[in-house]
Amino acid sequence: QVHLVEFGGGLVQAGGSLRLSCVASGKSVSSIDVTWYRQAPGQQRDFVASISSGVSIYYSDSVKGRFTISRDDAKNSVYLQMNSLKPEDTAVYSCNGRRWVAGRPIDYWGQGTQVTVSS
What we know:
- By secondary structure, the protein is mainly beta.
- It has no helices and eleven strands.
- The model has no long low-confidence stretch (mean pLDDT 96).
């Protein structure tokens, strides 16, 4: 069993920065794939960034160059550093942890943290 908790959301002005944390328990983050998603009211859940157990990193085009995903094995955490924030980045951000069991993915979700970017 994997449990994930997000921290770091808040209110920030456009152009500002926030760092989100996804803290895992029950499994080492080095052994799972972790993905950040976001969802604005009335919108679908969108992919933001991911880091695999093999440390392969991917970003959505909308955040590439502004956001950075990283992993700290000692703290069993994955971070999302968000710079140059825009109002359109406003959403609930959630982290997903994925384990592979018998060739099938098992997903775990955090509770989400609100990010609000003012104009």
